[in-house]
Specification:
- The structure is a single chain.
- The chain is an alpha+beta fold.
- Helices cover 43% and strands 20% of the residues.
- It has 4 helices and 9 strands.
- A 5-stranded antiparallel beta sheet has the order 1-2-3-4-5, with helices on one face.
- A hairpin with a 6-residue loop joins strand 8 and strand 9.
- The radius of gyration is 26 Å and the shape is elongated.
- The chain starts with 15 loop residues before the first helix and ends in a 10-residue tail after the last helix.
Length: 257
């Protein structure tokens, strides 16, 4: 482990007793199964060791910035790690990342991962666990997957808004990193919606009390993000109209017959 990244190393000192035990076991495997069996033993040992080091990395992450927002389980017998993030989100199916030995497209066993976004396996993602240099950066992997998760939520929100209001696509601006959606309401009024990467909580930038109440409803599962944004649009436009009427001397009357 170097700077919380698993890197290939050469020539490190090994406990002599452990080394002697491994050598004896390998001799037995060669005698019984040949060099093919020896390769399988060493390959599996290498993968299992990396999985254990990833487990140690995750323990450090959970004790730091990710405390309360991420957890993981490590099953040594199955050489499998299951990571869960955004633990505080309400009324949503859990999202997990499984890290372990999986078959690749060629049917060969390798160290890899599976991402289940809200219990649905995501197969068409261009993300790797191990880089070309053989390094494993679990923090980079999690951050990359979470960014993809946020991107999918932002794009889905845009689709919902377009389905709900005619010509609304002209009012929507999505940031280049797909982490924010800005909804233009008037010339100098807009709502910017985003999601916190650590907790998965929804929030509005430069929020008013109305926006904070809407964010609370979204995060508690009481309401949906696109509904709250449309509700805020209506309330803000109503407030703008009321201000214009007051400025021009119009008086609001509750009972007009």
């Amino acid at each position: 482990l170097e700077n919380s990244i698993i890197v290939p190393t050469q020539g490190e000192d090994t406990n002599s007793t452990i080394l002697h035990t491994i050598q004896n076991y390998c001799d037995t495997v060669v005698n019984d199964e040949g060099f093919g069996g020896l390769y399988d033993i060493l390959y599996n040992f290498s993968i299992n060791s990396k999985i254990y080091l990833i487990h140690k990395q995750l323990i450090d992450l959970r004790m730091g910035l990710w405390r309360g927002n991420m957890t993981h389980s490590y099953t040594a017998e199955k050489s499998l790690i299951t990571v869960s993030y955004w633990l505080q989100k309400k009324n949503v199916k859990p999202t997990t990342v499984q890290i372990g030995k999986f078959q690749n497209k060629n049917g060969e066993c390798e160290l890899s991962f599976k991402w289940f976004k809200e219990e649905v396996l995501q197969e068409s993602i261009d993300v790797r666990l191990i880089d070309d240099g053989g390094n494993i950066d679990i923090l980079l992997l999690l951050n990359t997957l979470i960014k993809e998760h946020i991107k999918s939520i932002i794009l889905q929100l845009k689709e919902k808004l377009i389905e709900s209001v005619e010509d609304v696509d002209k009012m929507i601006i999505i940031s280049s990193d797909y982490e924010k959606l800005t909804f233009k309401i008037a010339q100098f009024k807009e709502i910017t919606f985003s999601i916190d990467p650590l907790s998965g909580s929804s929030y509005f930038e430069n929020p008013t009390n109305m926006m904070n109440r809407s964010a609370y409803k979204i995060n508690c599962g009481i309401s949906m993000n696109f509904i709250e944004i449309l509700r805020l649009k209506m309330l803000i436009q109503e407030s703008i109209f009321a201000s214009m009427m007051n400025a021009t001397g119009w008086v609001h009357l509750n009972n007009i017959r």
